[in-house]
Write a structure and sequence with these properties.
Strand content: under 5%
Number of helices: 3
Structural class: mainly alpha
Number of strands: 0
Largest sheet: none
Number of domains: 2
Helix content: over 70%
Order of helices and strands: HHH
Shape: rod-shaped
Radius of gyration: 63 Å
């Protein structure tokens, strides 16, 4: 392992500050052991480049599988939606045909009812015209009878006055 500081320089520094050579070497040895232990802990948590590549390949493989599944699912969903859309179109066409048939039937019924009402109105007008003609004839007959009676009374008055 590489150490990122000069151990001999540290021993010399400790000796200059009052430590003996043996004490300085023990302190530096303890520091090296602590650093090695810390590096071991750090290295345990770290992954190597090879492990990282393997993990990346596994993830990419998994993503590829998910993509395939999604494409298959998308195609099946699209097919299902298309078939559902076709069913709805057919139902809509059937409903449209039924509505058109109903509209045609209602129109025919309305025309028939309208023609019946027209014929009833014409018949009613014809009856009223006949009744009016009969009334006019009765009036004419009554007027003629009254004229005849008036002439007859007139004649009787002339006979009476002449007599």
């Amino acid at each position: 392992r590489k150490l990122f500081f000069d151990t001999h320089a540290l021993v010399c520094l400790l000796e200059e500050n009052g430590f003996t050579t043996q004490q300085s070497e023990v302190i530096v040895s303890a520091l090296v052991n602590i650093m090695n232990t810390n590096l071991d802990v750090i290295y345990k948590d770290m992954v190597t480049k090879v492990q990282q590549e393997i993990a990346l390949q596994q993830v990419m493989s998994h993503i590829g599988g998910v993509k395939k599944d999604m494409i298959i699912l998308e195609k099946s969903e699209f097919s299902a939606l298309c078939s559902e859309n076709e069913k709805i179109k057919l139902e809509l066409q059937q409903i449209k045909k039924q509505v058109m048939d109903e509209i045609t039937k209602v129109r025919a019924d309305n025309k028939l009812n309208l023609n019946l009402e027209k014929s009833r109105v014409k018949e009613l007008h014809a009856q009223q015209d006949r009744a009016l003609i009969q009334t006019d004839r009765k009036i004419d007959t009554e007027v003629a009878d009254l004229k005849t009676m008036l002439e007859s009374h007139k004649l009787d008055n002339i006979k009476y006055l002449a007599g």
